[in-house]
Amino acid sequence: MRLGLTKIIGENQYNFSFDGADLWECIMESQKVSIYDIKECGLCHTSFLKLIAYETKEDKYKYVKVSCNKCKGSLTLGQAKSDNAYYYRRDKDTGNLDWQAFVEKEKTS
Question: What is the pTM of this model?
Answer without folding.
Answer: 0.77
